[in-house]
């Protein structure tokens, strides 16, 4: 690991080290910068950092800090759901040092995402980017908040892959994740992944620690050398915003449910292991042993791809399902139901 850092401020670049000031002006932001992160333009960094907040979580017998992202200017903040479990109180400190009591709007434990709310208006929000604009081997950046003094923390990473499935140590599965090689692990959960242009493209999860991924992330060509890089994983900002919208509007996450348990088929697609009785798949005539190859317009290469395709559909949508049974391709139609 290269132990080199810079401090970048809105008024210029300071020398090596990690410095801070408790009485800085609200408009000024200081950055503890990790290896090679000087490649992130100061203007891009300054456009993201004001929207990143520190969240102090108080439990009955402990307290700790996680990172959050102001995703709406009215005070809605997205963060990880796991750290909020058992929380008795939440305190959000913004980049300019203001502290707010926060309430939990709703959580999505399946994805380790949560929305909390603070009393505010006109709060800074970041620009959101398109993951399709980032290529393998591109330099990306992770930004979080330091737990002790609420400074912005930045490190460089190499963008590696999209569509990664993670089977985590707690038995959950995370789908369609973004994989990056990061040299320095963030000091808190829920750090933000952004591009060199200062656009947010993802939100990191700490569940990746010890997880089994769907495929090894091979080294990719890059001009950035990360000698001790480890894999980090993030939800795309598109999915994160979908979850946020659902939670704010309804209190939970909703998408169409098919009613099958599947696994990856060696030939490609999602092999059905079991079908929920009287569920949409059952009513559509699907049985264990069928191999689902498409849903709607999406061709499916894996079981995880089926989960991701279902995210694009709501309850009461009727979808065309392509499948193979005993070597014969066929199609059927299923009316999805809600699974929140």
Automatic annotation (TrEMBL):
Keywords assigned: Hydrolase, Protease
Domain PDZ: start-end pairs: 256-327
Gene Ontology MF terms in the entry: serine-type endopeptidase activity
Keyword Protease appears in the UniProt entry: yes
Signal peptide (from-to): none
GO biological process, one term: proteolysis
Gene3D superfamilies: 2.30.42.10, Trypsin-like serine proteases (2.40.10.10)
UniProt-listed SUPFAM superfamilies: PDZ domain-like, Trypsin-like serine proteases
Pfam families reported in the protein's UniProt record: PDZ_2 (PF13180), Trypsin_2 (PF13365)
UniProt record similarity statement: Belongs to the peptidase S1C family.
Protein's name according to its UniProt entry: Unannotated protein
């Amino acid at each position: 690991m290269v132990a080199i850092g810079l401090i970048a401020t809105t008024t210029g670049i300071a020398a090596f080290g990690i410095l801070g000031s408790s009485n800085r002006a609200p408009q000024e932001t200081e950055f503890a910068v990790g290896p090679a992160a000087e490649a992130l333009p100061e203007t891009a960094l300054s456009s993201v950092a004001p929207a990143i907040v520190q969240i102090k979580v108080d439990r009955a017998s402990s307290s700790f800090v996680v990172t959050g992202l102001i995703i709406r200017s009215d005070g809605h903040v997205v963060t990880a759901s796991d750290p909020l479990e058992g929380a008795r109180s939440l305190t959000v400190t913004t980049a300019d040092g203001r502290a707010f009591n926060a309430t939990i709007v709703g959580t999505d434990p399946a994805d380790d995402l949560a929305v909390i709310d603070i009393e505010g208006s006109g709060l800074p929000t970041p620009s959101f980017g398109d993951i399709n604009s980032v290529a393998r081997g591109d330099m990306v950046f992770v930004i979080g908040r330091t737990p002790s003094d609420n400074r912005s923390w930045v490190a460089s990473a190499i963008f590696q892959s999209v569509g990664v499935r993670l089977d985590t140590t707690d038995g959950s599965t995370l789908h369609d994740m973004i994989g990056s090689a990061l040299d320095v692990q963030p000091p808190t959960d829920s750090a933000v992944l952004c591009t060199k242009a200062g656009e947010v493209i993802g939100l990191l999860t700490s569940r990746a620690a010890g997880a089994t991924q769907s495929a090894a992330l091979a080294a990719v060509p890059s001009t950035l050398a990360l000698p001790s890089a480890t894999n980090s994983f993030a939800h795309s900002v598109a999915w994160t915003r979908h979850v946020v919208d659902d939670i704010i509007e309804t209190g939970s996450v909703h998408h169409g449910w098919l009613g099958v348990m599947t696994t990856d088929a060696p030939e490609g697609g999602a092999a059905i292991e079991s079908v929920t009785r009287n569920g949409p798949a059952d009513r559509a005539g699907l049985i264990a042993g069928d191999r689902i190859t498409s849903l709607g317009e999406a061709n499916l290469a894996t079981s995880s791809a089926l989960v991701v395709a279902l995210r694009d559909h709501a309850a009461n949508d009727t979808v065309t399902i392509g499948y193979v049974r005993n070597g014969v391709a066929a199609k059927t139609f299923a009316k999805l139901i809600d699974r929140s």
